[in-house]
C-alpha cells in the first residue's frame, strides 16, 4: 500500500548562513516558473545554482499547497535509483510490485507541488525521461532543476546562472557605493565576518577585497572558500596568493559532498563528464583570454586528436556542459571560460606537454589578426576591425605577454604592438600601448627596422600624453634607425609626430613646417593614410595661424580622401576641426552639423574623448546665441574632462575660456551657474542626446526640497523596499549600527514614528519627481 507523505509544507534544509544578493535572478526564476512548469538553472559548478534554487523554493513555500521539496542527486551514482530516491525524499513508502515511476505518478497526479531537482548533470538522460513522464501526468507539478546543462525536455525554460556581480575594473579605486552594489563583495564580507566577527571594509582593504572578488570571477563557492582563509592571513596576503588558487582554496565544509570541498574537486567533476575530445579541447582553449570565437578555436586548437571540422561540435558540447559560456556580441557569437576553469584547463595542458606549442599558435593567430587590422584600418571595414580588436583585447595582451616572456620573441612582439598603433589610440589605451612597447623595446635592443617602427609608435603615444621629452628621445633614435635602413615611411612618420608635438605645445608655425614636410614625405612613400593623418593636423595649424583658405582647402582634401575610402576615424576628426574653422568663418549652422556628423562617426568606436571634443565645440558655437545651451554643454563637457582626468588640448583652451566668458556675460552669473549645473548632472547618454539636439536637460529635484542628506535619501529608499537595518548595512557596505543611526535620524527629521511612514514618504517624493 502507498502511504501519504508527511503533513508538512515542504522539505527544504535550513540555511546555515545568510543568502546574499541575487535579487534580479530570484525575480527572473519566479517569472519563468509562472510561465513554464519546468525551469532549469544552468551553470558551472560553484556558481550558486543550488543556493539560488533553494532561496526561490523557500520564497514560494506558501504558493504550493503540497509544498516545496528538495531532491538532492549529487550523491546518487546509480541511475536506476533515481525515481526511488525521489520517492524517498517525498516520504512515499510503497511495498507493491509496481514500478517506482507508477507510484510516483499516482502520488503527484493531483498535487500542487514544486520539486527542486538538484545536480542533474550526471544523470541527464534519466532525469529528462523522468521529468517528461511526470510533467505529462501531473498537471499541478512544477520542477525547478539545477544542472550543468539543460535537460532537453519539451517546454523546458533554461536560465543561465551568472557569477555574482563584481566592482568594475576601470582603473580607479572602487567607491563605497560601487562596493555596495556588488553581490560578490557583500558575500565576501558576510563570509569573512563568520571567521572574523569584527571584519569590515576599510580604506586600507577596499581595493584588495574588490580585486579578490574580480580574480575569483564572482564565483560564490570560490569566494566562500577564499574567505575561510582569513582565519590565518590578511586580505592583502590572500590577494597575493590567488595565483596559486588551487593549492590555497582547499578548506571547504567537512559535511559537503567531496566534489564540493574544493574548487579542484568541483571542476574535476565537470571534467569527468566530458568526452576525451572535449577534455582535450578544454585544455587547449585555456590559452585564450577574455573569450574567443569559433574561427580562433578552429585555427589554434585543431591538431592531433581533433580535426578542424570537429571543433564546432566539441564547442557545443562544452557549452552544454557549462564549461564554455556562449555570449552574443557585436562581432558575433563568442565563447568564454571562467578564469578558474581556464586555469584548471591550463594545468591539464601543461601536463600534456602541448602548452608551448599552443601558446605559440595562439600568438601567431593574434599576431596575424593585428596585421590584418593594420591593413584594414584605412577603409570600409574600419569599424568592424575596431570592434574585433576590442573583443580580442585580452587575447592580444596574452600574445604580447608571450612575446615578452619567451626568449627570442621580443621582436615579434614589437611587430604586433606596432601594428596595433591605431587601436591603442582609438581604444584610449595609450598607457597600455606604451607599456608593452617600452618593455618589448627593452627586451630586444637590436638596431633593426622593426625597432625603428616600434619607437615611432611609442613616441606618438607619448606625445598624445604630452610626455614630450621622452617622446623626443625616442623620435631621435627612430629617425637615426630610419636613415640607417633608408625607410621613407619611418622618416615621414617622425616628421608627423614632431609636428603633432609642436601643435600640442602651441607652436603652430613650427607645426606647419614639420607637418608640411610630413605630408610630402608620406606622399612620396605612397602612404595615403599617413598623408591624411598629417594633412588634418597641418590644416589645424594653419587655422590657428589665421590662414583660413589654406586650412579649409586642406580639410576638404582630407575629407575627399577619407570619403573615397569609406573611412570613419580620420574623417570624424577632420570634421571636428573643420567645423571649428567653419564656425570661425561665420557659418555656425553648417559648423554645428559638421560637429554632429563627427559625433555620429565616433559613436561606433565609443570614442569618448572625440565626442567630448565635439561637445566642447558645440558649446563654443552656442555661446554667442545668449541661450543657456552653451552653459549646459560646458557643464556636461566638464564632466567628461573630469572622467578623463585631464584638460583640453592646450591649443584649444582659449576657445573654451572665451565661450565661458561670453555665455556668462549673456546669461548673468546666476543663470549661467544654474545652466552649467544642469550640464554637470547629465549622464553621458543625456549629454550626448542634448548635444545632438534631441531633448532638453532633465529637471532635477532641488537639493533643498528634502530635509534629508543624500545618504539618508538613499537609506530611505532601501527602507521603502522593505529592507531591514541589517540588509541595508550589507547593501551599502556599512556597519549595522550606522544604518540604525541613519534610520533614527530619518524618523526624527521627518517627524515619523514608523518605517511604513518612511516608505509612504519615499513614494510621494518619487511621484512628485516623475
UniProtKB/TrEMBL annotation:
It comes from the Bacteria. Transmembrane segments: none annotated. GO terms for molecular function: ATP hydrolysis activity; DNA binding. InterPro entries: AAA_22, HTH_77, P-loop_NTPase, Sig_transdc_resp-reg_C-effctor, TPR-like_helical_dom_sf, Tscrpt_reg_LuxR_C, WH-like_DNA-bd_sf. GO terms for biological process: regulation of DNA-templated transcription. Residues 701-766 form the HTH luxR-type domain. PANTHER family: HTH-TYPE TRANSCRIPTIONAL REGULATOR RV0890C-RELATED, REGULATOR-RELATED. This is Tetratricopeptide repeat protein. It comes from Nonomuraea turkmeniaca.
Amino acid at each position: 500500500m502507498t502511504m501519504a507523505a508527511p503533513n508538512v509544507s515542504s522539505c527544504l534544509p535550513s540555511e546555515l548562513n545568510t543568502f546574499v544578493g541575487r535579487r534580479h535572478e530570484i525575480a527572473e526564476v519566479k517569472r519563468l516558473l509562472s510561465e513554464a512548469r519546468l525551469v532549469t538553472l544552468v551553470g558551472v559548478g560553484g556558481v550558486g545554482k543550488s543556493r539560488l534554487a533553494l532561496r526561490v523554493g523557500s520564497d514560494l513555500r506558501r504558493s504550493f499547497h503540497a509544498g516545496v521539496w528538495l531532491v538532492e542527486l549529487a550523491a546518487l551514482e546509480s541511475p536506476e535509483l533515481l525515481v526511488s530516491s525521489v520517492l524517498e525524499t517525498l516520504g512515499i513508502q510503497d511495498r507493491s510490485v509496481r514500478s517506482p515511476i507508477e507510484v510516483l505518478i499516482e502520488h503527484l497526479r493531483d498535487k500542487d507541488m514544486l520539486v527542486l531537482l538538484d545536480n542533474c548533470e550526471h544523470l541527464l538522460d534519466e532525469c529528462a525521461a523522468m521529468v517528461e513522464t511526470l510533467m505529462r501526468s501531473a498537471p499541478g507539478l512544477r520542477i525547478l532543476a539545477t544542472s550543468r546543462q539543460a535537460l532537453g525536455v519539451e517546454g523546458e525554460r533554461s536560465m543561465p546562472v551568472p557569477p555574482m556581480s563584481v566592482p568594475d575594473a576601470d582603473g580607479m579605486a572602487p567607491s563605497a557605493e560601487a562596493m555596495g552594489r556588488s553581490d560578490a563583495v557583500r558575500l565576501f564580507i558576510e563570509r569573512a565576518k563568520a571567521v572574523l566577527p569584527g571584519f569590515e571594509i576599510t580604506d586600507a582593504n577596499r581595493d584588495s577585497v574588490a580585486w579578490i572578488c574580480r580574480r575569483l570571477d564572482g564565483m560564490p563557492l570560490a569566494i566562500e572558500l577564499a574567505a575561510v582563509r582569513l582565519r590565518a592571513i590578511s586580505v592583502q596576503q590572500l590577494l597575493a596568493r590567488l595565483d596559486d588558487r588551487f593549492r590555497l582554496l582547499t578548506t571547504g565544509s567537512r559535511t559537503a559532498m567531496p566534489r564540493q570541498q574544493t574548487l579542484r574537486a568541483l571542476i574535476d567533476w565537470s571534467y569527468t563528464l566530458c568526452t576525451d575530445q572535449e577534455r582535450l579541447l578544454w585544455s587547449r582553449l585555456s590559452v585564450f583570454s577574455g573569450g574567443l570565437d569559433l574561427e580562433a578555436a578552429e585555427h589554434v586548437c585543431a591538431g592531433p586528436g581533433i580535426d578542424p571540422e570537429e571543433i564546432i561540435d566539441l564547442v557545443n558540447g562544452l557549452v552544454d556542459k557549462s564549461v564554455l559560456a556562449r555570449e552574443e556580441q557585436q562581432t558575433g557569437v563568442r565563447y568564454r571560460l571562467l578564469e578558474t576553469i581556464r586555469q584548471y584547463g591550463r594545468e591539464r595542458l601543461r601536463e600534456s606537454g602541448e602548452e608551448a606549442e599552443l601558446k605559440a599558435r595562439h600568438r601567431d593567430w593574434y599576431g596575424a589578426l593585428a596585421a590584418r587590422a593594420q591593413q584594414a584600418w584605412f577603409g570600409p571595414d574600419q569599424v568592424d576591425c575596431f570592434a574585433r580588436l576590442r573583443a580580442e583585447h585580452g587575447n592580444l595582451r596574452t600574445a604580447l605577454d608571450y612575446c615578452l616572456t619567451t626568449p627570442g620573441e621580443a621582436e615579434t612582439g614589437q611587430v604586433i604592438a606596432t601594428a596595433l598603433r591605431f587601436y591603442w589610440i582609438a581604444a584610449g589605451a595609450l598607457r597600455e600601448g606604451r607599456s608593452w612597447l617600452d618593455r618589448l623595446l627593452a627586451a630586444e635592443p637590436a638596431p633593426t627596422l622593426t625597432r625603428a617602427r616600434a619607437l615611432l609608435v611609442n613616441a606618438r603615444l607619448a606625445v598624445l600624453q604630452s610626455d614630450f621629452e621622452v617622446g623626443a628621445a625616442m623620435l631621435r633614435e627612430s629617425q637615426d634607425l630610419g636613415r640607417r635602413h633608408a625607410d621613407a615611411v619611418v622618416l615621414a612618420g617622425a616628421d608627423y609626430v614632431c609636428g603633432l608635438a609642436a601643435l600640442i605645445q602651441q607652436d603652430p608655425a613650427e607645426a606647419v613646417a614639420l607637418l608640411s614636410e610630413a605630408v610630402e614625405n608620406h606622399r612620396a612613400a605612397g602612404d595615403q593614410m599617413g598623408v591624411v593623418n598629417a594633412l588634418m593636423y597641418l590644416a589645424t595649424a594653419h587655422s590657428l595661424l589665421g590662414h583660413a583658405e589654406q586650412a579649409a582647402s586642406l580639410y576638404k582634401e582630407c575629407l575627399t580622401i577619407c570619403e573615397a575610402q569609406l573611412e570613419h576615424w580620420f574623417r570624424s576628426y577632420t570634421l571636428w576641426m573643420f567645423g571649428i574653422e567653419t564656425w570661425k568663418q561665420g557659418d555656425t549652422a553648417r559648423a554645428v552639423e559638421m560637429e554632429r556628423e563627427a559625433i555620429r562617426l565616433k559613436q561606433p568606436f565609443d570614442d569618448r574623448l572625440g565626442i567630448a571634443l565635439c561637445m566642447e565645440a558645440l558649446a563654443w558655437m552656442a555661446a554667442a546665441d545668449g541661450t543657456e545651451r552653451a552653459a549646459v554643454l560646458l557643464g556636461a563637457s566638464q564632466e567628461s574632462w573630469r572622467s578623463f582626468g585631464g584638460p583640453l588640448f592646450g591649443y584649444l583652451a582659449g576657445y573654451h575660456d572665451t565661450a565661458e566668458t561670453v555665455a556668462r556675460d549673456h546669461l548673468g552669473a546666476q543663470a549661467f551657474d544654474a545652466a552649467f549645473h544642469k550640464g554637470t548632472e547629465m549622464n553621458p547618454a543625456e549629454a550626448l542626446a542634448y548635444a545632438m539636439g534631441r531633448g532638453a536637460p532633465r529637471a532635477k529635484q532641488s537639493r533643498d526640497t528634502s530635509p534629508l542628506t543624500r545618504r539618508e535619501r538613499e537609506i530611505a529608499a532601501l527602507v521603502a523596499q522593505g529592507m531591514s537595518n541589517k540588509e541595508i548595512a550589507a547593501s551599502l557596505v556599512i556597519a549595522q549600527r550606522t544604518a540604525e543611526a541613519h534610520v533614527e535620524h530619518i524618523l526624527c527629521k521627518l517627524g515619523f514614528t514608523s518605517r511604513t511612514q518612511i516608505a509612504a514618504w519615499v513614494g510621494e517624493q518619487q511621484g512628485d519627481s516623475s
